[in-house]
Amino acid sequence: MANPDSLGSRNVATTTVLFPYGCNDSSCGYCNVTVGNKSYMMMASVDRPGETLLGITPDDYKTLLDRGWRRSGNIIYKPDMRGSCCQEYTIRLKSSTFKANSKQRKATNAWSNFVLGVDYKRDQAQKYPITREEKKRKRLAPFNVVEKIHESEYATLKSKNPLEPAHKFEIVLEENNFTEEKYKLFEQYQKAVHNDEASESGFKRFLCANPFKPRYSVDNKGRKIGPYHQCYYLDGRLIAMAVLDLLPDCVSGVYFMYHPDFSQWSFGKLSAVREIALAEEAGYEYYYMGYYIHSCPKMRYKCEYQPAEVLDPECYDWHPFDDSFRKILDSKPYYSPSLERRLINEGSDTSAALLKSYHINTRQGINSTYDDTIFTTDMSGVAKLEDTKPIIDGTRILVGRKLAVAEMIAGWEDMPVETPGSAKHKIAEAVAALGLELAPKVIICLAIGQ
Ligand SMILES: [Zn+2]
């Protein structure tokens, strides 16, 4: 039996504490089925003043990103890629190796030209002429993403000369607080782009609530860590906003919205280039651009940010996210290179039938109920129930505000781990989903709401 000192009770404030929701089967916004989008969910904070127990450290969240998790507001979730209607692949790119393609360069330049205006360009050419050699050098220079993305910003322009551009364009990285102006923008974006109604509570829950503990910090390299709103102001008006998580060594794009008045400027393209530039400039190694879903045509633009990598959904190593990987997805929606290698090594039977049996075991929610657990559905990329057994007895748990270890639960020893619904099964499920390395560092909260 663990003594209270070994529980690390003094450190609860700085430790990841998660409440396991369990498996969820919901409607899918990508393919519009009413059930079939399956995931395992945990709650990482509650909207209650003074409530600070739940939460995830940015370091632990980064570990989970690299195991295929993401967040929606303060809920963190891991999609069941094999069992879901749509397969959500984690992709990322190294900010320093990104090369803008012609469409991305064009969109960046077109926006700069609009902000500057023809008068500005003419006056600049007259008042601050440059030599022919300089002109040639500029034309031949490679497209510098960081330089180009700042070119239209008011502060950059003013640092060069006193001329006034046609528009005052400013970018402000703000804490992710609610404002009326942000909500109005969200409302208009939802209506025009997604033909959807917005609600203030939905906006707060989805784009302001966050799971981080602490909410804001600075890492040892001086980089900002936490949830931010990157606001785009044109002549003082909020015209677009990115929701970004700044994390240890990466910028993770959560959401982006723009005012429909500006739909001609390819803000979707521009925002990703801007986020890569932010990562590159501030020294975050990677940019995570959200899930890639091959069956969803709206996501195809994500393939254009290269060179990128895709996460293997079984063993979590990274592969080039290139044409050949995507070609495989055309015929095989669930593809794990490591799994295929293992099957070939194990069985010698490499027939399509064998491989196929590992792909998409259910579609569109058939045979699924809310009683499912990650073990009963055989969820992809999580530890087996058997492998969690050496860890679960010592898993730190929080019951109300009391810290304990799992084996202190009354009747623990005789509790059947195989039975869904038992506390033991629930803890094993959380351990398997979080991973055997992260789970011992985390506290599982078994009850909230007292
Ligand atoms: Zn779907």
From TrEMBL:
Q: Which UniProt keywords apply?
A: Acyltransferase, Transferase, Ubl conjugation pathway
According to its record, what are the GO cellular component terms? Answer: cytoplasm
- EC identifiers of the protein: 2.3.2.8
Catalytic activity entry:
an N-terminal L-alpha-aminoacyl-[protein] + L-arginyl-tRNA(Arg) = an N-terminal L-arginyl-L-aminoacyl-[protein] + tRNA(Arg) + H(+)
What class does this enzyme belong to in the EC scheme?
Answer: transferase
Database matches in Pfam families: ATE_C (PF04377), ATE_N (PF04376)
GO MF annotations, alphabetized: arginyl-tRNA--protein transferase activity
The N-end aminoacyl transferase N-terminal domain is annotated at: 26-106
Q: Does the keyword Transferase apply?
A: yes
Decide whether keyword Isomerase is in the record: no
Tell me which family the UniProt entry assigns to this protein.
Belongs to the R-transferase family.
As for what it does, the entry says: Involved in the post-translational conjugation of arginine to the N-terminal aspartate or glutamate of a protein. This arginylation is required for degradation of the protein via the ubiquitin pathway.
UniProt xrefs under PANTHER family: ARGININE-TRNA-PROTEIN TRANSFERASE 1 (PTHR21367), ARGINYL-TRNA--PROTEIN TRANSFERASE 1 (PTHR21367:SF1)
In Swiss-Prot or TrEMBL terms, this protein is called Arginyl-tRNA--protein transferase 1
Q: Which organism is it from?
A: Orbilia javanica
Higher taxonomy: Eukaryota, Fungi, Dikarya, Ascomycota, Pezizomycotina
**Gene of origin?**
ATE1_1
